[in-house]
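Quick question, first post here. What does this chain look like in 3D?
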Amino acid sequence: MRVLVTGHAGYIGTVLVPMLQRAGHEVTGLDSFLYEDCGIGPAPSEPPAIRKDTRDVTVEDLRGFDAVVDLAAISNDPLGDLNPDTTYAINHRAPARLAALAKEAGVSKFVYSSSCSLYGAHGDSYIDESADFLPVTPYGESKVLSERDISALADDNFSPTFMRNATAYGVSPRLRGDLVVNNLTGYAVAIGEVLLKSDGTPWRPLVHIEDISRVALAILEAPTQLVHNEAFNVGATAENYRIRDVAEIVHGVVPDSIIGFGPNAGPDKRNYRVDCDKLASLLPHAVPQWTVETGAEQLRDLFQAVGLTREQLEGGGLQRLKHVRAEMGAGRLDDSLRWVLSRASRVAS
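> Answer (accepted):
Ran it through. Tokens below.
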């Protein structure tokens, strides 16, 4: 299968692309390379790629592909709050337009990376894919709107599928330090303290990025009628945790650490537990293989191997919002997250 992966150079994409290639698929990437200089550890292997913002994609960019996996997005709530209109432009209008162009170009499968954040403030009861959307951030709202508009394009020749990913964690060449398991494990290694940024009471489903990638592969290879215009909560029902329980797991994995609270560790309105039984029923070979404990062990081993410091963990190499603000402050990126300077000029500066 010829597959275009948007956002291929990001946190999940640098894990997904090699997995698709190992499965025998021909992969091309498309990315603005916003995080090209981020991460720790070995650099990712790069497929053939189109250096382009998804807001600028043309139908000609999409001709000849059998499938599109759309990962490109403003990747978290704090970054999404920085400029809400840009969040909607990138996370809603761009994917809806991309899907329409893909359909026009003859692409038959479209796998959209959505998020359980669209469930928002739901409380402590388990919710499945039929639950109401109650987003509390521009990021979550943008995913609701994208699913609505992409779903409306479905027909006999164009088959979208929606991956409502749980909160991701795990090692990647373009590692993020602003995700809860990564962040807590990073602090445990760097300063010996599992540093909570909320009061620890909210529920959150959690999933390793390798497991997210396996689901994307399974959807691409599944019979179309099985996944046509379907949404899947991507994770395992057993892998819902209160954040304070995640802190306890990390403390167990880094036993010389203590659990502490940051200065503004208050309540978090985002609170949801998701039922992932639909995924286990329809795509049983794609059920998650990682747990938060094994993922924290993987992260610990990497952080210890590279000698992670607090400065690294809190710096722009691992914190997406800090990286974007630094690029904007240096005049390399405008407030709509478009590059002002070419790659060569940015490197020279």
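DSSP finds 14 helices and 14 strands in the chain.
The first strand starts at residue 2 and ends at 6.
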